[in-house]
Amino acid sequence: MLIAIFADIHANRQAFSACLAQARDYGAKRNVLLGDYVGYGADPEWTVTTVMDLVEKGAMAVRGNHDSAVDNLREQLNVEAQVAIEWTRGELGSAERQFLEQLPLTLNDDDRLYVHADASSPKSWRYITNVDDAARSMWATSAQITFCGHVHRPALYTMSATGKITAFMPVIGSAIQLISRPGRQWLAVLGSVGQPRDGNPAASYVMLDTERRALTFCRAPYDAEEAAARIRNKGLPNWLADRLLVGK
Amino acid sequence: MVKPFLELGAIIDGFRIEECIHQGGMATLWRVSRVGTTMPMLMKVPKIAEGEDPAAIVGFEMEQMILPRLSGVHVPKFVAAGDFAVQPYIVMECIPGKTLFQRLPELPLPYAEVADIGLKIASALDDVHRQHVIHLDVKPSNIMFRPTGDAVLLDFGLSHHDQLPDLVQEEFRLPFGTAPYMSPEQLLNIRNDPRSDLFALGALLYFFSTGVRPFGQSETMYGMRRRLWRDPAPPRRLKSDYPAWLQEIVLRCIEIEPAWRYPTAAQLAFELSHPGQVKLTKRSERLKQDPLTTVLRRRFNKDLTRSITVPAMARQISSAPIVAVAVDLAEGSPPLNDALRVMAERILATLPSARLACLNVLKLGRVTIDFTLDEEGHNKRIDRLVALKHWAEPLKLENNRLTAHVLEAVDPANAIVKFAQANHVDHIVIGARQNSLLRNLLGSVSAKVAAEATCTVTVVRPARTGETGQS
């Protein structure tokens, strides 16, 4: 079965629509959502209702730190994120806020674990940016493959039976077979759908072929000008609009 | 836990175990069969009992990731892989015959045969390099030949794939490979330079042509590291009749600096198939090893032990293409030949490692043997070669980037296409004859080349003038 997995949508309607359409064309039969549906972008309501609709149809979804921050004033965010989340609070109705609040922090499916950030302490929202972070996360789970987001830059880590970790910069569109062997674990850090920060403005997500255990990092180009214009129209910080055009 | 499965006659996932054909340090090879499959197959089963070498496991994982992605005649065809949780294995095509290793008692081989073996291996390396794989363990026991003569590379357990995580790199902080053939950069744990395979091939060619391993067989770290500063004795010192062109090629392959070797396997193959056109540098004349001062400079030069950043493999290969320009000396008008030269110049200006092969076709009569050719054929060829070099002169290319070839053929387009295929040409540049009587009679050579070539073709026309620019 082909699963499409999305992380860090951040209320970017144009980017998320483009990813969903591309994944559907590739034959995705199932969607998994790794959190941070809101924050930064101009369409939180559309995004959350779309996610609610997908979940109703069988998608799996976990909660991210921005989703937590909607109803939890103690959640720490950077300045721009804080401005965006304060605005977002005024955009979401109670049904949407309730939906976000009840989302789990982790989900297991077969030999896979879905989580927004570091799996060793999901509520701490720690970034996975190097092999040490990756090791800590993989030690904490028995799942063979972990999928997370939060970093906004794609990466793939694998740990051998002897505890050696390999970090890898995935090549777009090239399927990687996640070989299954007792003791080997994989950790896929997804790029962001709605706010890529790896220098490529195209929306980022992955496709997993569960039978072949083949993972493909995908990019969907989208109308970033429109997404940026909407951010400016809502009076959100300009940098949140500008960065979409350069993928930073 | 796995032993009970592996007995003669046992059936695993539809594969029947027929015969054990090899018990190696890292894996066991079984001949297997399957109902409905006629291709001979073998099953590779890693040794993963407790206390076994972790290399066997990681190498096997790597091969399991790489082999299914490779295709073509230069690799064994992948058939199936078994789940590690049940019984890990890879089933692949069984290549009949023997590996090059079995020929070691016959060494040294005749020079022409060594060059032929080198050409076949270089062609195979070019093919896998273009599929993003660096073999990193090129040695006689990993090379076989199909009945067609095509070389087949075996064992991708130590290989590096440009688009896959390198499991071997992290697993072994110490370099891993086969001592006599391992490149200096592999000793520094650099695993992403395709020119490492050219070094191994150079060491193999040296060994096969002289009977002596250029870097010995030492497997100690010091013994292996010596090649970082000490060059081997030039083959001509070991064998006085050693051809200069072969020494040039072999010594260039085993240069310590990757950048001093051939930029691509395709360019090495090109040289091996045109020995008469190999540019003979100082390398080809050498009878002595480098002087002690040079060796000491290398030995204590920290630059050599630095980690080198290697450009992405695909970019490295595509920056050193072989470009063939078909120049029509008899029929071609000066404006067209000038336009061809301008185009060649533009292509070469952006690619400093590219090389240019200038082609001209000497047309043979279709039905009868052309007797006039017999009488003056030799002169005609020479005349054409001279004219080709003259055409290329304004490009001011170094000798080692330029070759000239006169092909004799009934069908010029076919000859050009065949030359391009046989010589790993990446790009053909050809002129289109305009409004000529010959073109009307014979059809367009450039159109046929563009349609039938397997590489990029650029068709050049002279700049438009008032007369020709009507449409």
Walk me through the structure.
The complex is a heterodimer of chains A (248) and B (471). Chain A has helices spanning 13-26, 44-56, 65-71, 79-89, 94-102, 131-139, 224-233, 238-246; strands at 2-6, 30-33, 60-61, 106-109, 112-115, 145-152, 155-159, 165-168, 176-177, 185-191, 203-209, 214-220. With 248 residues, chain A is α/β, with parallel strands linked by helices. Chain A has one domain: Metallo-dependent phosphatases (Purple Acid Phosphatase, chain A, domain 2, 4-Layer Sandwich). A six-stranded mixed sheet of chain A has the order 3-2-1-11-12-9. The longest helix of chain A has 14 residues, at 13-26. With 471 residues, chain B is an alpha/beta fold. Chain B folds into three domains: 3-93, 2-Layer Sandwich (Phosphorylase Kinase, domain 1); 100-317, Orthogonal Bundle (Transferase(Phosphotransferase), domain 1); 321-460, HUPs (Rossmann fold). Chain B has helices at residues 54-66, 111-130, 167-171, 184-187, 195-210, 221-225, 235-238, 244-253, 265-273, 282-285, 292-299, 313-318, 334-350, 371-392, 412-422, 437-442, 445-452, and strands at 11-12, 15-23, 27-33, 41-46, 78-82, 89-93, 133-134, 143-145, 151-153, 160-161, 322-326, 355-363, 402-409, 427-431, 456-460. In chain B, the strands form four sheets. Chain B has a six-stranded antiparallel sheet with strand order 1-2-3-4-6-5. A five-stranded parallel sheet of chain B has the order 13-12-11-14-15, with helices on both faces. In chain B, strand 2 and strand 3 (27-33) form a beta hairpin. In chain B, helix 2 runs antiparallel to helix 5 (195-210), helix 2 (111-130) runs antiparallel to helix 9 and helix 5 packs across helix 8 (244-253). The radius of gyration of chain B is 25 Å and the shape is globular. The termini of chain B are far apart. Chain A binds chain B through residues 156, 158, 160-162, 164-168, 171, 174, 176-177, 179-182, 184, and chain B through 54, 57-58, 61, 64-65, 68, 83-85, 88, 162-167, 169-171.
